[in-house]
């Protein structure tokens, strides 16, 4: 029930580490040896602070800003341009009122990550593939809110024999029955006919307060659920007559070998990312 459509100087950054500005252990020892001889000699000991290693799915860009600069979406004015483009498109095509705007990561049925912009209007959930390099909309998927009948929240799960598993939690939105899909559709990695969509938080969530707001999965869910319920309440169509069901359960991704997603996700091929220079 969804519709998919298509539409047509940097300054050098110093990579000097903070450690370079600190005196080395040898320099510190030399400074200590030059202390006045009148002081009572005390055995000198070199103490090392224990290193602290934080385990996280994505490093925090607040500590390493150069990591966030690789993502084009974080560059000045890019996300604002995308929002204006989509607002103009909604105004021209449907004239509906936009209730919210989010930047999330979609995970397809083959476990591939894809950078997506999501909008909620009065009657529609819009999933947009946006090119943050060329600043243009590449693909739209329109899902009527009245067609969404189930939302699942929970941790990702995989078959026991799967070789490519992911950690974390996500959200899955259903507007059709997966059991009714043919094997050809289910096992086609490029299929766009799946009756559901799965999302998780964007890796640049902690770049700034602005991105923290638009990349938060809980914020998107808190807007989506009442929007669907209001649409079901005001809908005059017969529909399923079941309303909306919100469940907390594991989200199954049926991949076994996962070679394609292993290569794509490790290299962030689903994101508009600076890949480095090729010339000399």
UniProtKB/TrEMBL annotation:
**Quick one: a GO cellular component term?**
cytoplasm
Pfam families documented for this protein: hSac2 (PF12456)
Q: Where is this region: Disordered?
A: 1-45
Please state every residue range assigned to the domain named HSac2. Answer: 73-260
PROSITE patterns documented for this protein = HSAC2 (PS51791)
The UniProt similarity line reads: Belongs to the TPRG1 family.
Q: Which PANTHER family match?
A: TUMOR PROTEIN P63-REGULATED GENE 1 PROTEIN (PTHR31108:SF6), TUMOR PROTEIN P63-REGULATED GENE 1-LIKE PROTEIN (PTHR31108)
Q: What is this protein called?
A: Tumor protein p63 regulated 1
Instruction: Name its species.
Output: Bos indicus x Bos taurus (Hybrid cattle)
């Amino acid at each position: 029930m969804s519709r998919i459509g298509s539409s047509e100087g940097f300054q050098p950054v110093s990579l000097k580490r903070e450690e370079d500005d600190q005196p080395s252990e040898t320099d510190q020892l030399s400074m200590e040896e030059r202390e006045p001889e009148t002081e009572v000699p005390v055995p000198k000991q070199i103490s090392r602070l224990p290193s602290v290693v934080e385990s996280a799915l994505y490093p925090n860009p607040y500590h390493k800003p150069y990591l966030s600069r690789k993502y084009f979406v974080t560059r000045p004015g890019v996300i604002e341009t995308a929002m204006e483009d989509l607002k103009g498109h909604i105004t021209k095509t449907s004239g509906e009122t936009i209730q919210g705007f989010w930047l999330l990561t979609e995970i397809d049925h083959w476990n591939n990550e894809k950078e997506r912009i999501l909008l909620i209007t009065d009657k529609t959930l819009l999933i947009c593939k946006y090119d943050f390099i060329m600043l243009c909309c590449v693909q739209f998927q329109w899902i009527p809110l009245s067609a969404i009948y189930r939302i699942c929240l929970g941790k990702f799960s995989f078959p026991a024999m799967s070789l490519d598993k992911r950690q974390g939690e996500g959200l899955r939105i259903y507007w059709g029955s997966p059991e009714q899909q043919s094997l050809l559709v289910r096992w086609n990695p490029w299929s766009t006919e799946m009756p559901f969509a799965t999302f998780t938080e964007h890796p640049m969530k902690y770049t700034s307060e602005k991105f923290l707001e638009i990349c938060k999965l809980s914020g998107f869910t808190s807007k989506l659920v009442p929007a669907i319920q209001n649409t079901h309440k005001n809908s005059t169509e017969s529909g399923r007559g079941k309303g909306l069901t919100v469940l907390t359960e594991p989200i199954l991704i049926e991949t076994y070998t996962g070679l394609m997603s292993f290569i794509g996700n490790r290299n962030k091929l689903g994101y508009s990312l600076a890949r480095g220079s090729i010339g000399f």
